[in-house]
Amino acid sequence: MKLMCQERLKRQKEAVANRMKKLEAKQNEIKKKASEIRNNIERKYEEMRRVLEEDCRITLSLLEMEEQATVRALDDLIERNCSVFSDIEFQLSEGLMESEAQSEDMVTELQDRVEELLIVTDPSLVKLDEVKAEQILDLTNNLLLFIRSQTPITKRLLKSCLTEVSLDPNTAHPKLIISPSQDCVTFTNEWQDVSENDARFDTTLNVLSHQSWDSGRHYWVVDVRGKVYWELGLTYPSIPRKGRKEDCWLGRNKGSWCVEFFDGDYTAWHDGKSHPLPIGTHFNRIGIFCSFPAGLVMFLGEDSMTPLFAFCVGTFTEHLQLALCPGHDLQGCNSQPIKICHAAHPKC
User: Fold this and answer.
1) Percentage, residues of the chain above pLDDT 90
2) pTM
3) Which class would CATH give 158-341?
């Protein structure tokens, strides 16, 4: 009997050891793939930088060449004026001719030279091709506007995943007011006259979305401006909703993932484990991205697309719903609502 138990333990040990090897191999594979992707992206950005630098060099060289040609032309005109100016000074210093007729002829000759000189050296005749320069500037500005419209790349990618969502009043805590459009939630000290049902949170100030998802990639933007406390995240429908246990809170159980903002500090939560985030910026909008193929939940400061935290879940076992908690009003300091930015109008 003892030998049989030992054999079973050996097989179990071998199975665990093989699984560890496979996990390590998968880890190395993911690191290698991620490194290749990063290197490819870096090479593309480096190539774009070289293309822009070369275009800038060519454009500036052209303008510099035109500038040098114009300056040289003006140098020649200045030199011609200096020559005549010296002749006049010489005549003044040496005095006029003894013969009045000779003096008159000399003055007349200089006068003719000066008049011709003033005509051919008119500064308005020498100019840069300002029309072309303005065209170059306009094209450069258009290029800048185009680049800005395309970046950051992640913003364009995530915006393409924007998913319409509405809040379910039947899940809202009785001290939460859901707007008629079902895209805004506000805390109130007054207990609302709402029906009791199994879906409603009765202690934690949560509300869930009508919709749920089990495939694809999705992105939501939530406006939290004016708030000093809030919680945002995704949850399985099986999240506990009754009682005072902490597992009713977002991120304090195995079936929900959230980021909390309180008194200037951001914290990511899942399965009761907190991850304080070293971020000092107070964002007005928070982005929540979910990828079912990657088993990923990611939070961003949407104002500048700043990554906040990412959870790698692996495989989701249930549908997911968007979950919001506006928090107590904290004596009026946190009375602003939380608002969902719609896909058609992502900027609230």
Assistant:
1) 53
2) 0.74
3) mainly beta
